[in-house]
Amino acid sequence: MNTNKRLNRSFYRYAQILKSKGAVSFFILMLICLFSLTGWAQSYEVSLAKLIETPEKYDKKKVLFNAEIIGEPLNAKEGSWFNVQSQNYNMGIFLKDYANIDKITYWGDYKRKGDIVGIEGIFYKNCPVSDQRAVHLIGLEVVRPGKEVKHLISTEKKKFALIGFVIFLTIGVIYLIKIKLWHKK
Amino acid sequence: MIISPTKKDLSTILNLLGRLILGLSFFMLIPLLVALAMDEASPLFDFIIGATVSGALGLFLLILFPIKKEISWVHTFFTVSLGWLFFSLLGAIPLVLSGHFGSFLDAWFETMSGFATTGLVLVQDLDHMSFAHNSWRHLTMFIGGQGIILASLSILTQTKKVAVGFYLGEGRQERILPNVVGTARFIWKVSFVYLILGVAVFFFILNKIGLSSIKSIFQAFWLFFAAFDTGGFTPYKQSIAYYHSFYLEIATLVFMMLGAFNFNLHFWLWHKDKKEIFKNFEIKTFIFTFFSLTLLTYIPFLGSNLSQLFRGGFYQLISAHTGCGFTNLEEGVLMGFPLLTLLAVIFAMMIGGGICSTTGGIKLLRIGIIFKTICAEVKRWIMPPGAVFKEKYHHLNDVLLSDKKIRDAFIIFILFIITYVAGALVAIGLGYPATAALFESVSATANVGLSSGITNPSMPSILKVVYIIQMWIGRLEFIAIFVTLGALVSFFRK
Lengths: 185, 494
What we know:
The structure holds two protein chains of two kinds. By secondary structure, chain A is α+β, with helices and mostly antiparallel strands.
């Protein structure tokens, strides 16, 4: 009963404040703060190609992009690195939290298509760690898991290899016979 | 009177060429074994095709074209010129079959770039390339850098006359030992000692930064081939920037500089006088050109921190001066440099390294001679009329600056400048910006491999062919090719 009374009283007071002019100003101020905060935290969804071609535009800004993980994680003094590629563009990603790397299953190489990941991070034209162009990772999500790649050998290739081998052997035998004859002479 | 080759000469040349091509097919067995070891079935077939086609062609030439004349320098010059062409064409077979190249022309470009130790690439999706194909790409640089002909020379021939011809035809104008076969073997000895050292250093660094042992050992070999032979290929599209390792950058700097030193200087330091390094004319020229160009590079970088100076300018400058072509910068960063820095890098590429080394370009000794000639002329103007004045320089011994030396230096200098400009004009004609066009043309001719971004699979085919020719003539330093072309014209006129 007491609690209900207290709640009613608080609600009444709150309604009174809202009615006053000061409250309107306070509300506007809150809205401005909220918008500016949203602006500060704005992420740019961008392709890796665009990021590399127009680095000035995104310097020290939060960026979001998708790319394939390649190679392997690389140890560094203050954290780790890994590299990603998308549409023939590559970028180094720096991270301190190793837990993000554990999310990756497939690292792209000859036998594997790497995981396609969504990268969220701060892009630097001159990264404070390496003085190179890089992204400092905030978060990572696997968008499409990678897979083992089977390289099929075409029948033509097999045929060519066989024909080439037979021709090479035939010419080799002819050459040996020629050398023997030459030695006999 | 021009020496005109007869049919007997051509038969002799084709026989020598056959021997070299047979040697190439043996080299292809290395990536073939890598494919077997790494369980890469498709690349295995690519190298079976490449090796058997090369082997069959080599044997075919040996059977059909016997040596009909005593081998002279004309034959060897011909063989050197054609050898580079045939090696790059046949070496492209396994690469084009890999599916990483848009056309045979692209694969040919890649192998010519490898054999000429240039490092410009047209490969697509490099990050997914097999161990076997990557081994072959890097091996081409080792074979080309040490000298296709020198390699075969040590194995196939003991004839002094043939050896000298091959040696000079490759654009190497100094002998280390009186016997040129001995010279070839010394170059191989030096290279193998550094190979062991380099592979150990690179393996340690790569393993430490997190590469698996098997990857570390392969990439240690590849990086050594690329650094010491000043080739510049890497197994990743980002070049050295992929590794994000300061220690690896330092190690590559050391080995690319060792590769750019005159092999004669290595010999002198190993077997004779260690103080030669302080007196040597090439080293003095290098110090002068390097510091002048560093100054040019750093003027626009004033106010930057030490790390930016090293990674931004110093690494690219050394890479350009040694003709290696490694870069630790991400894509597009280099061409974003101020014009003055770009010009410094272009000049460094133009000059190159030591005269008997794996680098391309005009070379330090010639640049030094040209500087010295200009200084001597100025001195002569201010001397009393009739005064006798002779200029010397110290290159292993005290050498008199003779008219012949000056003439030779100026001829090669002018030929290089003409080629640099001609290549740039072609690219400008195709619509590329002037600075980028000059940068790429110099990089191709001086066998460097740093790129302004022009070299990519979508560039016009005509430009690919132009760069292939530039890499070829830049590597052989004109003479062998001019002799071949002149003799061929004369043969067909007859």
